[in-house]
Amino acid sequence: MRNMADNTRAKPAAPHTDARQPRRGPAITRAVESWVAVFWRKLNAGELGSLPVFLVLPAVWITFQSLNGNFLSPRNLSNLSVDIVGTGLIAVGIVFVLLLGELDLSVGSISGLAAAVFAVLNVNNGVPEWLALIIAVLAGTAAGTVQGFSFAKTRVPAFVVTLAGLLTWNGLMLAILGTSGTVNLDEDGLVAQLTSYYFTNDGAAYGLAAVGTGTVFLASYLDRRRRKAVGMPHRSLRAIAVRTGVLAVIAFAAAYVLNQFQGLPLALLIFLVVVAGLDIVLRRTRYGRQVYALGGGVEAARRASLSVTRVQTAVLAVSGTMAAVGGLFLASRITSVSQTSGSGVLLLNAIAAAVIGGTSLFGGRGTTWSAVLGMLIIQSIASGMAITDTPTAVQFVITGGVLFAAVVIDSLSRRSQEAHGRA
């Protein structure tokens, strides 16, 4: 009987489990795990985005810092932030053209033309700087519009039309400059101040970091709420918080470094505002959606009743405008305009920056921030080569190698997307 009693004795109850009980662990850990899962899913599908840049840039900085301890100094990084602006603005215009799956080879010549128009009007003819600046930018817009309309109407590939433009606008620049060849700008003038003025108050850099971080958080939150309201996939609040936190660390660290030298450069502020503004145009406007749609297929866009001619013309006009603005910043950096303005490796660097930053050569994929990231890679290499007294030839070889790697990655990424039915 005792044995039977022992066998029937009540056993301790198992711990109560509730299927609705939330997962334990820090919220930030769950957010990181969720982000990693999404990241791997996109990586397997070939959606690399700007991932290569985030892997290459730290490697470049670490390498040059080990070769010369001044590479990551506040002075050099501040100069780097200004040096990327001129070519970076041109690269932003290239992004628009690449989204169509086309190429604009005339941006270098247009940048030189705009700088020449400004210099001759202001210095040689006494036109006020602000008016000469507006006319110079409009000259770039007009050049781009002519090319865009020709491309859209004749259906000749854009690289052929813009190759003709490269020669035409370069010849026009030489004619405008005349026999003098070189025009020196006023070192205290409006254009010269574009790359030489700094906001020395520490609050300017920190304020920009705070506004930028807050804007990104607000945009992500509103996008989440909009998607959630219509039942579309959306980021969790934790994921948004982690993403914003990482951005805040980077932004405030950059502000701290800039304040250790001369403060926030005006050129960098203008660059970031322009890039952010055009990013909104591409992502949040009907025109931007049409650009991406056109990059996915011209015939499909026509059948969807999109105005292909208008969009293609507008894209080349944007490219010409950004080339003109970039040319003025390049002229500001050296306070002069010459017959070599807009020539050399400027065109190749602008295209390379867009591609290296993650914009696809096949169209339909990329953002204006691609130009910023790609330009950081290219200018970091140039700055590192200069500070370590490395021959320019080696710089070209390395930049070419990075560009080739970016093109190969882009091609492999597209193949992977096609295999997953995403291209």
CATH architecture of the domain at 51-197 and 303-418: Orthogonal Bundle
The share of residues in extended strands comes to under 5%
Helix and strand sequence: HHHHHHHEHEHHEHHHHEHHH
How many E strands?
Answer: 4
Helix fraction, binned, reads over 70%
- Describe the strand arrangement of the main beta sheet, using strand numbers: 1-4
Mean pLDDT: 85
| Dominant shape | globular
Uncertain stretches: 1-25
CATH topology of the domain at 51-197 and 303-418: ABC transporter involved in vitamin B12 uptake, BtuC
Helical stretch tally:
17
The helix-and-strand class reads mainly alpha
Largest sheet entry: 2 strands, antiparallel
Through-space gap between termini:
76 Å
- Report Rg: 26 Å
CATH class of the domain at 51-197 and 303-418: Mainly Alpha
